[in-house]
Amino acid sequence: MWTPVELPYFCGTDGLPAPLPTTDEIMTSTTLLKDRLGQKMVRVGQHFVVKYGHGTGEVEGHNLLLKDMFDGMHSLPSPGFYGSIVKGYMPRHLFYSHPADQSISGPFLHENEVNNAIAGKLRSIFTHNKKYNYKSDFYERHLSRVLSGHRAVFSHSDIYRKNIMIHKTHRHTPEKCDYIVALVDWEYAGWYPSYWDYEISFTHFHWDDDWPERFESFLEPWLAEVALIKSRLERSAHLQEK
User: InterPro entries in the record, alphabetically (predicted)?
Assistant: First the structure.
């Protein structure tokens, strides 16, 4: 039975690789990994990456508790819902609604509810632009014919190269490689259909190098699912830009 993460969460000093950085150490760090409006991500010392700012939500900190399980996260037992790790709304913008509409944002108990939300979000965008959307009708009729049978798995939902960090260990030599690989930026992580991590990353491939092929080496391709969702995203993005 699913139980929520107990909050606030505290880790004993014996479970940390080094003492936590102070506020001054964080604010004065010169190793900037990301800088956007309201948020910064910096490296502090040899062991910590810290994200801070007005746009940093508490849910992202909750998701960090699971980052050590990334290699096996898609095999974690399903909690029986699709949503954030605290059984909240789906974190990705594809499910954003304001004011909050649970039929679009979740959480959801069944995959067909996720499909209805994908179609419903598209319809809401067209309605906002004072247009009728026949494509939403199509998705409502047929989406569940392809998007079905996908259990809820814990997904990072933002697996891009900028979020993958690789560090050479002291055992690394010219003759033998030894790396530590870490995944950062867990803001959008949650329980999504099993195709999600591949699908949402596919929509951002630039196809100017071999990254899409390398991506397949650690995530199973979901081609039919990608085709449907990519078509859905392209049209809605066009409208939102107007």
Answer: AGP_Transferase, Kinase-like_dom_sf
H helix or E strand, kind and range, residue 214: helix 211-215
Q: Dump pLDDT digits (tens) for 132-147.
A: 888 889 999 999 999 9
- Domain assignment of residue 107, given as a range: 72-241
φ, ψ of residue 3 to 5 degrees: the values are -125, 140
What is the distance between the terminal CA atoms of the chain, rounded to a whole angstrom? 45
Greatest CA separation for the chain: 63
Count up the domains in the chain and report the number.
2
Distance between CA atoms of 7 and 119, rounded to whole angstroms?
A: 34
**The pLDDT of residue 222 is above 90:** yes
Burial of 185 (0-12, 13-18, 19+ CB in 10 A): buried
Token pair in block for residue 24: 């001054």
**Same domain, yes or no: 199 and 81:** yes
**pTM beyond 0.90:** no
What are the pLDDT digits (tens) for 31-70? 988 887 677 889 999 889 888 876 666 545 444 433 445 5
